[in-house]
Each structure stands twice: as C-alpha cells, then as structure tokens.
C-alpha cells in the first residue's frame, strides 16, 4: 500500500507517489523497461531532470534505451556522462577476445554528431572519443591476435 506523508510538501508527496507506482508496476512487469521509460519521458517532457533513483534504475534495466531517450530530449551532457560511465564498465569487461559486450553504436554516433554541433562548454566529447578509441583499439588488437594465431591449412 502507498503510504502518505502528512508532514511532506505536495511536491515531495508527488515524487513519493511516482516512486511507489514505478516500484509496484516494475515488480509486476518484471524486467520490462517500459514503465521506467514512460516515467522518465514524462518528466523530461516537462523539462525537469530525471530523479537520480529513476535514472539509476533505468540505467540498470536498459542502458541503450535510456541513452536514446536522453539524446532525443537534447540532454547531451547527461547522455555523455552515462556513456562515459558505461564505457568504463565495458572496458573493464573487455579483457579477452571472448568477452561479450554490446554498445548502442547508432546512438553513440548520433550523440557524437549532436555534440559536435553544440557549443556547450559542459560537453565531454573528447573524453567520450578517447574511451571509444580505447575500446575499438582493444577490439582491433584482439582481432589481430586471433588472425595471427590462425595457421593456414595445407
């Protein structure tokens, strides 16, 4: 049951209600991120920041979709920030040729294009480019090593 905080201001009550509804609906809906997307998108439509608890939950449930949503709403700084954090995790996982990771390349490409057109001093485009280069260089090194170790059949 959703409790009511009588000492809270109406705005706090609204956020508590949203959180309780998201918690309840995601419990019922399992791993589906539609509820998280709907809540985050509704908040962004009103040009408000996504609360940290919702952003964190959405990131864990569906990183590519949350990244896409931020890009669609022009939240380039936030999109770059979560991408940088995600790339750090991915780089720590890519330690062998058998590592299985997936990046949303089309969203990353669009983010980089939009960032290049933006004149914001807050963007961390250089940092994103450096991490992507490290990631791609690592994949190339694994691919080159795999090709080097292949012995042609005679």
TrEMBL record:
InterPro entries noted in UniProt: Nucleoporin_Nup160, TPR_NUP160_C
A Pfam family per the record: TPR_Nup160_C
GO molecular function: structural constituent of nuclear pore
Residues that span the membrane, as ranges: none
Gene Ontology cellular-component annotations: nuclear pore
The NUP160 C-terminal TPR domain, residue ranges: 10-142
Protein name: Nuclear pore complex protein Nup85
């Amino acid at each position: 049951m959703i409790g009511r905080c009588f000492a809270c201001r109406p705005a706090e009550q609204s956020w508590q209600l949203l959180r309780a509804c998201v918690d309840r609906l995601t419990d019922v809906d399992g791993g589906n991120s539609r509820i998280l997307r709907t809540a985050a998108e509704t908040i962004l439509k009103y040009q408000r920041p996504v609360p940290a608890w919702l952003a964190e939950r959405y990131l864990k449930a569906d990183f590519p979709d949350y990244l896409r949503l931020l890009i669609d709403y022009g939240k380039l700084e936030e999109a770059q920030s979560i991408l940088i954090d995600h790339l750090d995790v991915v780089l720590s996982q890519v330690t062998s040729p058998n590592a299985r990771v997936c990046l949303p390349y089309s969203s990353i490409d669009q983010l980089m294009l939009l960032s290049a057109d933006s004149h914001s001093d807050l963007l961390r485009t250089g940092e994103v480019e450096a991490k992507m280069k490290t990631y791609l260089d690592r994949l190339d090194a694994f691919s080159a090593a795999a090709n080097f170790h292949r012995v042609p059949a005679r």
